[in-house]
């Protein structure tokens, strides 16, 4: 079944093909409303009819988070300016990463499903011995969205703590620590550093929310030279208009042995349904 067909007049001369682009604009918009945002944008490039239809507000508003006006005001515009923009433009604006909290945190909306994602850099965390070069080194790295990672040479007592507060839209979320055993490459050279102590006792990860939710997990770190997301747990946000405060931590405080050779980048929060693609 094709998207177009030909007809003939009474004298047998052919008329031009009729396709989806000849449908009324409101009909095209209703069809586009069933598609994902990336698919809508791809179809909008086909012709002017699809482009005009793709701008209808009723297509984009159901795909925006419930509290999109508050998010747009905080992340995109001055107060009230969101009322002047089309919903398509607000969707596109929220998909652009925005940094806050002295550029130690980054938030954006994922294009496919309209969920909010967030990264919290190690730079905004409280880390035991972070300013002592005997223990930690700050390494420039293109493998981090914040362009710098913290590399642990060795330590007896590992303790990393952080917090954030944000108006997450209602839904289920997952929280991860992004780590790597072994020193990431710097430039075109790679300096081998010994990885030790992580197979003796597990690392403890924890988070707690201002609504009372909390989760704890333990992981033995054993995948060297590969960035991994250690899943701490999942949580649920019920009120989109109430800021949620999250405290998170990573500890290994067994002082019977040293541990070292660990790269720390960030904490990652995303909608739970994205777990399958991590």
Automatic annotation (TrEMBL):
Domain F-box stretches: 17-63
Gene3D superfamilies xrefs: 1.20.1280.50
Cross-referenced InterPro entries: F-box-like_dom_sf, F-box_dom, PP2-like
Domain of life: Eukaryota
Database matches in Pfam families: F-box-like, PP2
Name recorded for this polypeptide: F-box domain-containing protein
């Amino acid at each position: 079944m094709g998207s177009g067909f030909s007809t003939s007049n009474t004298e047998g001369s052919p008329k031009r093909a009729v396709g989806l682009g000849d449908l009324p604009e409101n009909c095209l918009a209703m069809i586009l409303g069933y598609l994902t945002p990336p698919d809508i944008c791809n179809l909008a490039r086909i012709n002017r009819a699809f482009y005009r239809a793709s701008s209808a507000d009723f297509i984009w508003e159901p795909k925006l988070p419930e509290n999109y006006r508050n998010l747009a005001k905080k992340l995109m515009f001055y107060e009230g300016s969101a009322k002047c923009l089309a919903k398509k433009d607000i969707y596109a604006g929220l998909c652009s990463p925005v940094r806050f909290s002295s550029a130690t945190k980054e938030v954006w909306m994922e294009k496919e499903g309209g969920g909010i994602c967030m990264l919290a850099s190690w730079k905004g965390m409280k880390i035991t011995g972070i300013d002592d070069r005997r223990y930690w080194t700050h390494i420039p790295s293109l493998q981090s969205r914040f362009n710098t990672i913290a590399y642990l040479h060795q330590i007896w007592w590992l303790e990393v703590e952080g917090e954030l507060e944000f108006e997450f839209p209602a839904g289920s979320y997952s929280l991860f620590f992004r780590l790597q055993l072994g020193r990431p490459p710097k430039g075109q050279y790679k300096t081998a550093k010994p990885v030790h102590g992580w197979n003796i006792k597990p690392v403890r990860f924890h988070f707690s929310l201002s609504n009372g939710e909390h989760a704890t997990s333990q992981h033995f770190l054993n995948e060297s030279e590969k960035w991994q997301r250690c899943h701490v747990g999942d949580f649920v946000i019920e009120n989109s208009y109430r800021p949620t405060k999250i405290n998170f931590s990573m500890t290994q405080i067994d002082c019977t042995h040293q541990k070292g050779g660990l790269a720390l980048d960030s904490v990652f929060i995303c909608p739970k349904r994205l777990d399958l693609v991590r």
